[in-house]
Design goal:
There is one protein chain. The protein has one domain (4-126). By secondary structure, the chain is mostly helical. It has ten helices and no strands. Helix 4 runs parallel beside helix 7. Helix content is 78%, strand content 0%.
């Protein structure tokens, strides 16, 4: 029986990150907010699975997320990208690669964003 994790592993192994790198340079992507939202949300869902953090970071997912974050004016897209980087920063990954791919810019943005900071504080207090 195939599980959701099996499908996600296939996406990562078959090069979803590399495919997105090609898409992100298109004018279609830059002008399509729905596409930006869908891609950032899909990558967020993948980043929730610890087993794929190393692979995603190695395949330059943070660079992809930064391109999405930088291209979008939507708060929710930026939020998904920043949360992605937070997830990918946990565990045994190449932290220098995250820094080199502008991951810290997204994390800093998130720490300064009042709405999100309040949400994070609530989650922290709940634990």
């Amino acid at each position: 029986m195939t599980t959701v994790e099996d499908y996600i592993k296939r996406l990562v192994d078959f090069g979803i990150v590399e495919g997105l790198q090609e898409l992100l340079v298109s004018d279609y992507f830059k002008s399509n907010e729905e596409l930006q939202m869908n891609i950032s949300a899909a990558l967020y869902n993948i980043s929730c699975l610890k087993d794929y953090h190393l692979s995603m970071v190695s395949k330059n997912a943070v660079s992809v997320l930064f391109r999405i974050w930088e291209s979008s004016a939507l708060y929710d897209v930026k939020r998904y990208c920043a949360l992605n980087v937070c997830h990918l920063s946990c565990g045994h990954v190449n932290s220098a690669k995250i820094v080199d791919q502008s991951g810290t810019k997204m994390i800093c943005w998130m720490s300064l964003e009042d709405n999100l900071s309040e949400e994070v504080r609530k989650r922290s207090d709940a634990k």
